[in-house]
Amino acid sequence: LHPASLLNSTSHSPALLQLLDLELTPPVIEYIVDCVAETVHYSLGGTHSYSEPVYYKFTGLVTTVLARSEVPPTTLLTTLVYIARARAHLVVPSDKWALERVFLGALIVASKYTHDSTLRNKHWARCTGVFSARDIGKIEREFLAVVDWQLSVSEADLVDHHEGL
Questions:
Q1: Cβ atoms within 10 A of the Cβ of 155, count?
Q2: CA-CA distance, 41 to 33, in Å (whole number)?
Q3: Given CA atoms 155, 5, 89, 23 in this order, what sign does their dihedral have?
Q4: Exposed / middle / buried, residue 42 (Cβ in 10 Å: 0-12, 13-18, 19+)
Q5: What is the reported pTM?
Q6: How does pLDDT run across 101-140, given as a tens digit for each residue?
Q7: Which one of 14, 19, 42, 114 is at 20 to 30 Å from 154 when CA atoms are compared?
Q8: What is the Cβ-side half-sphere exposure of residue 40, based on CA atoms within 13 angstroms?
């Protein structure tokens, strides 16, 4: 049995098994940051690009939140699926905090969906060092509305990120 799925490993694609052993490395963080940036860029009509300082600051936040929250690979993969799923439905009125809100919304929803016991909003707020627990709750609700509460994830959804990772 594979501990991440409770099924025999032979019932999964080799690509998925590789992804389940994913380690949080700088290239993985860069891939996550790029996925979020592309999603927000798309939602802003493809007309906005981020300056290097904004991109660098966002990468720092992603790195910090992922290190502090200690989310497992399954949560990271689910986060990427949700980011991709949100792309077609996301409406961003302003680019202020857009990257952070999309990332945190996807991550928090993924964590709560994939685990019975997860961080509370006040702990997520501490992980960010920027947002309050009330902000986290709002970000989570907004993200759930964007994905229309469609949270199920298939093996194919996860494997879609194999090449990039």
A1: 14
A2: 12
A3: negative
A4: middle
A5: 0.84
A6: 899 999 999 999 888 788 898 999 989 988 899 999 999 9
A7: 42
A8: 25
